[in-house]
Write a structure and sequence with these properties.
Vacuolar sorting-associated 16 homolog; Vps16_N; VPS16; 2 domains; Methylamine Dehydrogenase, Chain H; actin binding
């Protein structure tokens, strides 16, 4: 990388765009030092392209949209959108509960409906926007027993919307607007919790990683392995 030893990536929030796209970095805990936070945008080769002022509160996560806009999710539920050249574009808000109880986690996703986001609030409720250009927020149904952060979760886009797969220890729940479905994929051994999930680029296949080291790979509806 062109930045060589100038950047210690362990001290930064990082968002790398797919397919060799740009890399955004924001130093962690900059507010504590009194310095004004800056977002740095580098090329995939590590050459500085632009920077932008970070005016938000504590950052939860950054990500790149399919249009190469940089999305910065703050814990108060605001999403600051920047262009590739570092220009501020707009703010999207995720509603009153996100503001009051804070955003503790989020996932970006892409589908035929557009580029979307799902957030998890401090009250352990999920909210989704399927298309950030549309901005309509949907509150999802609550999976039973979720009174702490889930061991893992992921948003699965569908033709007419999306659903969220939530792992509450060894139990898996598929949640949508007003529906909760318990799923029990066939496993070769007993597991205590699912700690990681990964979705294929075409959204058709899913990988689950369990605390025992078991990896399950199958269809994203968990019906075929």
């Amino acid at each position: 990388m062109a930045w060589k030893d100038e950047i210690d990536i362990t001290k930064y929030h990082i968002a790398a765009a797919p397919y060799g796209g740009p890399i955004a970095l924001l130093k962690k805990q900059m507010r504590l030092s009194g310095a004004k936070p800056l977002i740095y945008i580098y090329s995939a080769a590590g050459r500085l392209m632009a920077n932008a002022n970070w005016e938000g509160v504590n950052l939860v996560q950054m990500g790149w949209s399919v249009f190469e806009d940089l999305l910065c999710v703050a814990e108060d539920g605001t999403i600051s959108v920047y262009t590739l050249s570092g220009d501020f574009k707009r703010i999207i808000t995720m509603g009153q509960e996100a503001k009051e109880s804070k955003v503790i986690d989020c996932r970006f996703f892409s589908s035929s409906m557009g580029f979307g986001i799902t957030i998890l609030t401090g009250r352990y409720h999920f909210y989704t926007i399927n298309n950030l250009e549309d901005k309509r927020i949907r509150k999802l149904a609550n999976p039973p027993g979720l009174n702490a952060p889930p061991s893992s979760w992921i948003t699965i886009p569908e033709d007419r919307g999306s659903r969220v797969l939530v792992a509450v220890e060894s139990f898996l729940y598929s949640i949508a607007n007003d529906n909760v479905e318990k799923l029990t994929p066939e496993m070769s051994e007993q597991v205590n919790s699912f700690t990681e999930m990964a979705l294929s680029v075409n959204n058709k296949y899913l990988a689950l990683y369990a605390d025992t080291g078991l990896v399950w790979i199958g269809s994203s509806d968990l019906r075929v392995s």
